[in-house]
Amino acid sequence: MRSVRLNFSKTGRAIYISHLDVNRMMTRAVRRAQLPMWYTEGFNPHPYIAFALPLSLGQESDCEYMDIRIEGDMTNAEIMKRLNSTLPEGIKILSVGSPVHDAKDIAAAQYFVKLVFENEEEASLFCEKAEELMNAEELIAEKPGKKGHRKIMKQVNLIEMIFDKKITCAGSIVNLQCSLAAGNSTNLNPTLLVETIENCVGIHHKQQYVVRKKLITKNNENFR
Amino acid sequence: MLSEKIQKILLEVQKPGRYVGGELNSVIKDKDSVAVRYAFCFPDTYEIGMSHLGMKILYSVVNDRDDAWCERVFAPDNDMEEKMREQGIPLWALESGDSIKDFDLIGFTLQYELSFSNVLNMLDLAGVPLYSKDRPDLSPIVVAGGPCACNAEPMADFIDIFMLGDGEETTDLLISLIKKHKELGSSKLDFLREVAQHKGFYIPAFYDVEYNEDNTIRSVTAKETAPAKAEKAIVSDMDKAVYPEKFIVPSIEVVHDRVTAEIFRGCIRGCRFCQAGFLYRPIREKSPEVVEEQCKKLCETSGYDEISLCSLSTSDYTGLQPLLNSMLDWTTKEKINIALPSLRVDNFSDELMEKLAVVRRSSLTFAPEAGTQRLRDAINKNVTEEDVMSTVDKAFMGGWTAVKLYFMIGLPTETLDDVAGIAQLGQKVVDEFYRLPDRPKGKGVQVSISASSFVPKPFTPFQFEPQDTQEMLAEKQEHLMNSVTTKKIKISTHTTQTSFMEGVLARGDRRLSKVIELAWRKGCKFDSWDDQFKYDKWMEAFEETGIDPAFYANRRRDYDEILPWDHLDYGISKSFLINENKKAHESVTTPHCRIKCAGCGSNKLNGGKCDALSKA
After folding, report:
1. pLDDT of residue B339
2. How far is Cα B200 from Cα B210, in angstroms, rounded to an integer?
3. Interchain proximity B253–A21, CB inside 8 Å
4. A140 and A158 Cβ atoms separated by less than 8 Å
5. The predicted structure's pLDDT at residue B181
6. pLDDT tens digits for range B394-451
7. What's the whole-model pTM score?
8. Which of A115, B154, B190, B270 supports an S-S bond with B508, CB 3.0-4.6 Å?
9. Distance (Å, rounded) from C-alpha B487 to C-alpha B507?
């Protein structure tokens, strides 16, 4: 039995499939591809499949990672070929290899966010204010959290979770490139960042595209 | 493929995966290279519609042709509907993202009466006029099939063509006919005239209905090219019937998400309450080899790890044992679970149970239907208390500790004693568990009793019977609750209001079209969802149209009354139904079709052939 890490992309209509449903879809895909999967033992045997970091509904990504365990000696190239011939529109395996990092090592994720505003004025105003807000000491947002078993709204400072950012404006479009905290302990969704800035500025985009480009480990390496 | 407008609203609604298509094995064609575009509409949400086998079959039938493209359409949930209306986005088909208004055929499957209002809502969302008479052109033609087409009269004013019976061959024919008439540049009337001449089609506009003073039907007269009685279509050889090699695999979770294999059509039992048992006659079995081959193929192309062997009464399939034996060889190896819905308590063997528990243990549900032997005899559910007990014995010994029992209340001839009998039977099952020395240890027993309310349906021996009033049903439900004395029995019942509406629509006539329209205008939709059903609005609609719903639900019909569906021919003769009705009132049973042919008449549809006799 060996562990295999698959890097896949999620684009087009597939962005509307939730993380849970991607899991289910992959369980079926490995069956269709007839990969020699290793099954968990016990009452309800199922193939071992684990994902590095869930992706929010509606976001594109080039950096989704899934680990599987296989028996026997099927090559990585064969695994990739078989899976790609049976995946639905918008899901594509980009590479297959052995896991290098642990999913726990993930510290950040890089995103491209494109925001379309009503007009040029709104876009440039947003751009200017966002720059200011993201360079301040504090940018407070409310996130749902837990206190014991109770569900509460927690106040969090987003600045601590923004590692890098670059914002540009072209016509009525704003492009934001950013590295945000990601992983099990702290995680910042770019839509929350945008929403918080927009609430401060008082203008809202017409349309938003989010692409996750890269996962980065705590040693500042690309997650592999 | 989805327009920007649609994409924009997708992230503002719950479960957007329902509206985007793109699932594995969905069929994409070039719209300019097909002659006919068909929108197959399921008048409920994606999760429910995608569980429906008929859609999968007909999707293949149409898409196997190079000249036609079938796409799927479901009822958008309320949040989506609101966005669509707000943004002026008409209802689209999942595959192309195109508005269905410009399709040639818009087909609805009518699986339950309480989806009728959704049909109107979907037509409206598509921007298609509701009434057949307001659609003068050759396209779109609005068609409807499914079990409720057997009494389609309440929907008669909205639908151009009803498709009666099995749809595999008639759908194919319909595509050819519309293609031909489009090429000829025919009028809608010319097209309908030709369609009416073929078996399996019913064009309601070609029949004039007159009424008596007492609101019963005086006459139904065929005109144009329509036959006096429109006959249902059947597929005569199940081995040769179209069956998909691929199922669309939904990307989001749906209700029944697995391989479904149909093993036979029809039912040998003749339970008098059961509409499906009569509608799908005569019996036609698929051979085990064909079933197995289809299952194998479907598992390969879908990646599913569960197969459901589907029919009206799976343990009556003559090939069940050889089929299971052969299939378990590969399903066990590939960790595929086989589910057998619709088992009967009188032929559930030890061997069968062992086979069921091989990969994963599924739940066990049995349907005694009535609480006392007398009533079970009256409804012709040929099951005894000993059958029930010996089955639960096997289940408990096999390690099950929870069983579900299905019953109905409001059955013809039922008394309060019969109702109390349900609780008593449940109690006996509980007692049986504790009597068994080998019962599963460390766990209590759980008996879940579901008591739904009986609704008399067309083409059954009970089509003449009055449905219990809501007051009577409520009293019986309460009596049932009071008759249970242990927490080990859980009872669930249905709301009497929905059963009443179902009863009205099931045996309604075409005067109800205007009631359905009015109720829809008042906001009725998703009537089968308890949390969305608006009883008061329906009652207002009856009031304002001056129509008495009790006339349809709670009235006994004379045997010689002309019923709204009498001009449809489902093979079952009325005299057979009358005879069965009489026997019910005498609590006399009719043996199942393999013991003795009961002479229902349906074999005439298949050249005298019925697998209940040939495979007895």
Report:
1. 84
2. 24
3. yes
4. yes
5. 98
6. 888 878 888 899 999 999 999 999 999 999 999 999 999 999 888 877 778 999 999 9
7. 0.93
8. B154
9. 38
Instruction: Name residue B207's beta-bridge partners.
Output: B222
Segments of chain B scoring below 50 in pLDDT: none
**Alpha-carbon distance A44 to B357, whole Å?**
12
Backbone angles phi, psi at A153, to 5 degrees: -95, 125
- Between CA B129 and CA B122 the distance in angstroms is 11
- What pLDDT score does B63 carry? 98
Complex ipTM tops 0.85 = yes
Q: List domains and CATH numbers for chain B.
A: 4-231 (3.40.50.280)
How is residue A125 written in tokens? 């105003």
Mutate to test the interface with B, among A16, A87, A113 (most CBs of B within 10 A): A16
Q: pLDDT tens-digit profile of A101-124? A: 999 999 999 999 999 999 999 999
pLDDT of residue A146: 76
As given in the structure block, the two tokens for residue A183 are 């992983």
Q: To the nearest whole angstrom, how far is the Cα of B426 from the nearest Cα of chain A?
A: 30
- Chain B residues with CB within 8 Å of chain A CB: 1-2, 4, 8, 10-11, 15-17, 19-24, 249, 251-253, 299-305, 334-335, 359-360
Q: Please, are residues B67 and B34 in contact by the beta-carbon 8 Å criterion? A: yes
Torsion of CA A182, A183, A189, A193, to 10 degrees: -50
d(CA B25, CA B218): 51
Judge contact between B451 and B478, C-beta under 8 A: no
Contacts of A29 in chain B (CB under 8 A): 303
- In tens, the pLDDT along B513-525 reads 999 999 999 999 9
Q: What is the pLDDT of residue B616?
A: 57
- Give A168's Cβ-side CA count (13 Å radius): 4
- Contact: A45, B251; criterion CB under 8 Å: no
Domains within chain A, CATH numbers bracketed: 2-99 (3.30.70.580), 105-217 (3.30.70)
**Residue pairs spanning A and B at CB distance below 8 A:** 68
User: What per-residue confidence (pLDDT) applies to B233?
Assistant: 97
